[in-house]
Amino acid sequence: MQEVLPEGGVVRKLWIGETAKYREHVLRLDPESRRNRFAGGVSDDFVRSYVDLTTGLDAILHGFFIGGMVRGAAELRPLGVKFPGQAEAAISVEKPWQSHGVGSALLQRTLLAARNRGFRLLHMACLADNRRMQQLARKFDAELSFDFESVVGEVESSRPTALSLMREMMSDGHGFATAMLDLQTRMLRA
């Protein structure tokens, strides 16, 4: 499944040194999108601390970039030693880019990264009224379980193959080249 992204948009990994771009993205989320991302209202200070913590953990971040700015992001985070082979995914997309295939493209890339790291089960939690995330999870055959105020989607992944590893390696190479060209362009304009 290949998503068609808005013109000029690219999905790629966030590299070391791009923490500020991720932070700016999360801070730009409108109140509803921020509430959906964090399962409740959170302050700007919370967001800043969260981003600093996330980039210091074993999280793998993918971003949707337009014009050098992150407008959507996906996090893949291992659940830890107590839950081997399991990880959590979280997605955020700024309002103007919602319903344009961005979330699907981010989740697709996150699922590939999870598969290639041996995560057999990917958890996605959201609020019960977050229909957009539930629809996205269903698109990738997630099994949804409903609780009082939340929904947890679980997606099982296949084992990594030489082809899946090559797909990620090629995506990372293309993403890195794109990031370097963007940096060079911005430096020449400055």
Would you kindly provide a written description of the structure presented here, covering whatever features stand out?
The chain has 190 residues and is α+β, with helices and mostly antiparallel strands. The chain has helices spanning 19-28, 31-38, 44-56, 102-116, 131-139, 162-189; strands at 10-13, 60-66, 69-78, 86-93, 121-127, 143-146, 150-156. Strands 1-2-3-4-5-7-6 form a 7-stranded mixed β-sheet, with helices on both faces. Helix 1 (19-28) runs antiparallel to helix 3 and helix 4 crosses helix 6. The longest helix has 28 residues, at 162-189. It is globular. The N and C termini lie far apart (39 Å). The mean pLDDT is 88.
Q: Please provide the ordered H/E string of secondary-structure elements.
A: EHHHEEEHEHEEH
| Shape designation | globular
Number of helices: 6
Strand content: 15-25%
The N- to C-terminal Cα distance equals 39 Å
Q: What's the total count of β strands?
A: 7
Which runs of at least 5 residues are low in confidence (pLDDT < 50)?
none
- Going across the major beta sheet, what is the strand order? 1-2-3-4-5-7-6
Reported for the largest beta sheet, the result is: 7 strands, mixed
Rg measurement, Å: 16 Å
How is the topology of this model organized?
Layout: E1 10-13, H1 19-28, H2 31-38, H3 44-56, E2 60-66, E3 69-78, E4 86-93, H4 102-116, E5 121-127, H5 131-139, E6 143-146, E7 150-156, H6 162-189
Parallel strand pairs: 4-5
Antiparallel strand pairs: 1-2, 2-3, 3-4, 5-7, 6-7
Helix pairs in contact: 1-3, 4-6
